[in-house]
Amino acid sequence: MTRYIVRRLLLLVPVLLGISIVTFAMLRLIPGDPARVMLGEHATEESVAAIQQRLGLDRPLPVQYVLYLESCLRLDLGRSIKTNRPVLQEIAQRLPATVELTLGAMLVACLLGLPAGILAAYRHNSAFDLATMFGALVGVSMPIFWLGLMLAYVFGFLLKWLPPSARLSVGVEMKSIAEAWGLSGASPQVASLNEFFSGFYVLRAILTGNLRALADVLSHLILPSIALGSIPTATIARMTRSAMLDVLGQDYIRTARAKGLRERTVLLRHALKNAFLPVSTIIGLEIGWLLGGAILTETIFSWPGLGRLVVDRILARDYPVVQGSVLVISLIFVVVNLLVDISYAYLDPRIHYD
Amino acid sequence: MESLHSFKSAIPALELKGSPRSLLYDAIRRLLRNKLAITGILIMGVFLLTALLAPVISPYDPIAQDLAMRRRPPSQEHWMGRDDLGRDILSRVIYGTRLSLQVGVLSVGFAIVIGALAGAISGYAGGWVDHIVMRIMDIMLAFPALLLAIAIVTILGPGLLNMLYAIGIVSIPAYARIVRGSVLSAKEQEYVVAARAVGVPPVRILFRNILPNCLTPLLVQGTLGIGTAILDAAGLSFLGLGAQPPEPEWGAMLGQGRYSMFTAPHIVLFPGLAIMLTVLGFNLLGDGLRDALDPRLQT
Q: Which residue among A171, A318, B147, B156 is buried most deeply as judged by most CB within 10 Å?
């Protein structure tokens, strides 16, 4: 197992280098002079030269790459052209919103997809099974941004059950975690940690004991989570059904039934436990899809996350922020995939990796 | 001797009745018995006809504006209503079918050609060639697909053609992996070993003997891939990175219409339904093809 983990970590090195080459190339492959593209046609020669120097565009390409790699390792992703703030700071400010949304969507997908898949397999070829599978097909065919717009219109505008956009209602106040715990004015490290973790609104509302804010935050999270979670829900339902059908035909299930065990025990304790392995892999892999899908969902629901930052800054031609965001999202994706692989090897002792 | 004679006379009785059935015939029979696949074919047929006959069946000019009639709801004259600039939504949806199908089919075609070539060369050559090609594919797969497509469009600039390339490039690894896997298993088969032994050139073996065996998984993945490509294209256009105004592209129509959604929901309702139905058609057919061509993988 340890050898497998070490091998997987070593295999990660060329992938990480590849990611760094792609993100490095992003800025350099822009047709024309990237500095002029960013500053616009009317920029002065001095300001173009200043940006070229700041981004190191006036140096030979291999030197530029080595410097880029070095600064990435120092966690220095440069400065935003638009705000002049460090890119990493901008990303850290937006990341919690995206993580919260992604986890919310995954929760929705598991809560709906798993039971639907289990019941569909248990009632194989029934009307419920057919309806679930057709619903899942419709689910994977639906553009999430359209579903998001429809949900916002029906539940946010017509019925007024849930807020159609943003993360928090106007007028709802929340103390930061440091403020609530009496740590204000502590070291700069504590301040930056406070800023980052206070970005997780659900966590912040819980840790500060603010139940009104918690209810408000959760109500804002529901619609975007359903929209973003729709495709993973369908995928998980299909995968769970397929895995359960495989398992339900095995001899040990027949034996369990022959012993007179309750159907619920057979289904949940014997069948689901074994069927869950391939499903858990899919759940992990869907996180990567969610990170991509969040770009669209955040745009619809005015969700101040990393996805919306990417879109806003592409339109503003703030390429250092776009470059940094792409790097961070793909790193998260790679790490999640690695953890899924390792957990798969850990969960199933039958799997041997040479 | 007599027993041999009686054995021979028994042979005609063992012969199968009717003409022998090919694997393709069996697959088509299985496909046509699948109700969901037939639904998919019907949906795709309707959209294909709509795309082909767009100039004939479209009631109005899809880009003709009438600002005095903006955001009008569906009526007898305008079945799907009018958009923000007073354009007929039905006509735009009809013309949008052409764009979406073109983007879906062309980007997947591009990905299949490049991916199949890369996978075939990688699998057949093996060694360092295989290693390098597969590591490049791993790097491409290390990005969420939509994010990579966005990154490519950022480099190339927004527009329909660049979006097509971006979606095509992002889809390459899936096809490369499928073909590489098929080539790896086919190249050890006896007929390939025999072809090599009699001196058939490698390129000829690859294209004449091996690649035809990869067509089944490519066909299934390609059909499902068109649906995904249409969704991705709509997403990019929605963000303003794909088709540009006044192109009647479904995603772009949603992107432009979302600002007036609360006052005129019909502007986003119909283009979204069109995207969903088209993608559903491809998914239903893709699932049906998979079940028909490889019954072991039945869903």
A: B147
